[in-house]
Amino acid sequence: MDVESMTGEDVTVTFNMQAVIAPRTGGPDVLAQVVRPVPVPGPGEVLIEVAAAGVNRPDLMQRSGAVPLPPGVTDVLGLEVAGRVVGGDAALQGQRVMALVKGGGYARYCIAKASHCLAVPEGLPMDEAAALPEALFTVWHNMCERGRLAKGEAVLVHGGASGIGTIAIRMAIARGATAIATVGSEAKKKAVETLGAIAINYRNEDFVVAARDATNGRGVDVVLDIVGGPYVARNLDALAPGGRHVSLSFMEGGVVPIDLGLVMRKGLYLTSSTLRPKSDEEKTAIAAALRAEVLPLVASGEVRPLIWRQLPLGDAAQAHRILEANENIGKVLLLPAGATA
């Protein structure tokens, strides 16, 4: 039996729910829908009745075995959700929230740290809310904090049509910067241009030349890179003096040669981070910054996600296939059975 509501600080009755796990490493077909007890929130935590969960590349990496499951984290996949608080921290009871979670999002109910929850702005649908936490935390911390993107500067976003990429574009533009983005098809190029970015189809354009042309020869101030490998040297070439190179991932290799002479001549900065291993305190600080700096932009509509597909929870394997094939423009979401906004 699925639980319908849970209130109060303590949850003592056990109910069951549907959830998705990867019982072994492998391709999308290893994903399995299982019955699990509804998790019980501890101190400082909330229980969220999940309306929708976002699908992200770290989920694919966990499923494939490329990234091991962190100790003490549930084997239920999923790093972001939106829904209504039905248990745990009394201050958030009944509220619509979107949350970054350590795991457990591919389920009917999910535990989140109360301090990692963001209030869903009035008028924002739950599906759109579920597409935001991972991107907002990642983009704010990497582009705005580590990359220090400022008004009047330019950022080059690789993977511009992805969930992270589309939010980076919208956040950069909303904060007064120029967004330049690489994409892999003409359909994605048109979609990214609709967001207000200068789009580069890397299959038939040299993004270094195009980035320089878009900045009157100066180069970009920040690069958000997900590719690694041979892209790093080209990214450094595309950076303006004092530019900041921020690595989010390295799909084509994490060990690369770097021309230190170029780094020194331009005075470049190389930095990176990964979100999941960060401490609860670090994530709480990022959440506080998002409430102050970004949620007003979400409420105004300046920062909104693109939704590519919404699939039932049981179709998680198909969701993973879509991301692996790079079909999506924006986010892919999973909807638990019976979920409502």
Q: Report helical residue fraction.
A: 25-40%
Using only C-alpha atoms, the radius of gyration works out to 20 Å
Number of domains: 2
Shape category: globular
The name of the CATH superfamily of the largest domain reads Medium-chain alcohol dehydrogenases, catalytic domain
Order of helices and strands: EEEHEEEEHHEHEHEHEHEHEHHEHE
CATH architecture level-2 label of the largest domain: Alpha-Beta Complex
Secondary-structure-based class equals alpha/beta
Content of β-strand: 25-35%
CATH class of the largest domain: Alpha Beta
- The DSSP helix count reads 11
In whole angstroms, the N-to-C terminal distance is 21 Å
Average pLDDT number = 94
What name is given to the CATH topology of the largest domain?
Quinone Oxidoreductase, Chain A, domain 1
Structure description:
By secondary structure, the protein is an alpha/beta fold. It is built from 11 helices and 15 strands. It has helices spanning 57-64, 126-130, 133-146, 163-174, 186-194, 207-214, 231-238, 260-266, 280-293, 295-300, 316-324, and strands spanning 16-21, 32-37, 45-54, 80-88, 96-100, 109-113, 117-119, 154-157, 178-183, 198-201, 220-225, 239-247, 269-272, 307-312, 331-335. Strands 3, 4, 5, 6, 7, 14 and 15 form a 7-stranded mixed β-sheet that branches. It has a 6-stranded parallel β-sheet with strand order 10-9-8-11-12-13, with helices on both faces. α3 (133-146) packs across α4, α3 (133-146) crosses α9 and α6 (207-214) runs parallel beside α7 (231-238). It is globular and about 60 Å long. It starts with 15 loop residues before the first strand and ends in a 6-residue tail after the last strand.
